[in-house]
């Protein structure tokens, strides 16, 4: 019966031959703690004699430095596993998952942050261990955006990645945030307000919206922006279950609001009239403004803007700029700042914003303000009468 045999190469290196003919390299050595040990160096002939001798030499070098090769091998394995589990993409998706409950799944920020990372970061450093990415690499990524004039994308990318590093530090996967001080090396950029017409051009805009005949749904949407001062995204995502036409109130849930706080929108009679008409067109769907190709999805985010371009307002007025027009008009009419800020779903500044949560929905407050504004714009008799005198 065949037995195991051992061929010695000296200095602890052996070739063990099994009864079935398989051959493997073994190395006997004394660990730094004085205990004897043996480790495998691979199978012959996959590992040649020269390669086995080289491995033996490498182990002896570690031992000379007081390093246990078994512990070193385990540490190397842990580092490889750590690097695989702590790539920037892995940590970014962990961070994103932790933030979604705060943003809510349907919020623009949850989708926007993921899209920005997928476009500009993951293809370049997504598979890299987070601590191996150098500050200069981040600077080059951010500068490439500012060189392209994409300052808003640069701002968002910087903010998202900075927060991902903060998350990595808190969870013990990083020790330094290279994005914290990068602003000093970037071009300053101040975001301007959205294009909007001055008050003296408002009568013309009202007439153009009323006369728009390409799509009744888009016309109603543009008119609703003027009558409510909501954000275009809040309007496009509006659902019929939020609308109470009898009470003249639109209740927007917190998860759909930019500030994460539920918002009540008073509906003047002109808005109620338009919504009753809109209900005949889209009332069978969940959304007030369903998409043309897929009614389960909202109207395209370019629909309102394209309509304004067709009317001749390109470079002069955009959908989001309507909020500025409404706010300015209400201020000029003498309405209280608090009412206007709540209508815009803005948080009041400083300590006032902390302690003041009034909705100002009494009949003689915001509802009366927005009815006066609607009458001021569209008159009291017909939706086609234009700006009241």
Could you explain how this protein is built, in words?
This is Tyrosine-type recombinase/integrase. Pfam families: Arm-DNA-bind_3, Phage_int_M, Phage_integrase. Keywords: DNA integration, DNA recombination, DNA-binding. Residues 192-370 form the Tyr recombinase domain. It comes from Vreelandella gomseomensis. This protein is of the alpha+beta class and 389 residues long. The chain has three domains: 5-76, Double Stranded RNA Binding Domain (2-Layer Sandwich), CATH 3.30.160.390; 88-185, Orthogonal Bundle (DNA polymerase, domain 1); 199-378, hpI Integrase, Chain A. It is built from 16 helices and seven strands. The strands form two sheets. Strands 1-2-3-4 form a four-stranded antiparallel β-sheet, covered by helices on one side. A three-stranded antiparallel β-sheet has the order 5-6-7.
Shape verdict: elongated
User: Unreliable stretches, pLDDT < 50, 5 or more residues?
Assistant: 350-356, 382-389
CATH architecture title of the largest domain: Orthogonal Bundle
Q: Characterize the largest beta sheet: strand count, sense, and whether it forms a barrel.
A: 4 strands, antiparallel
Would you summarize the structure shown here?
The protein folds into 3 domains: 5-76, Double Stranded RNA Binding Domain (2-Layer Sandwich); 88-185, DNA polymerase, domain 1 (Orthogonal Bundle), CATH 1.10.150.130; 199-378, Intergrase catalytic core (hpI Integrase, Chain A, Orthogonal Bundle), CATH 1.10.443.10.
Q: What are the main properties of this structure?
A:
3-stranded antiparallel beta sheet, 10% strand, 3 domains, disordered C terminus, 16 helices, 4-stranded antiparallel beta sheet, hpI Integrase, Chain A, 7 strands, DNA polymerase, domain 1, 48% helix, alpha+beta
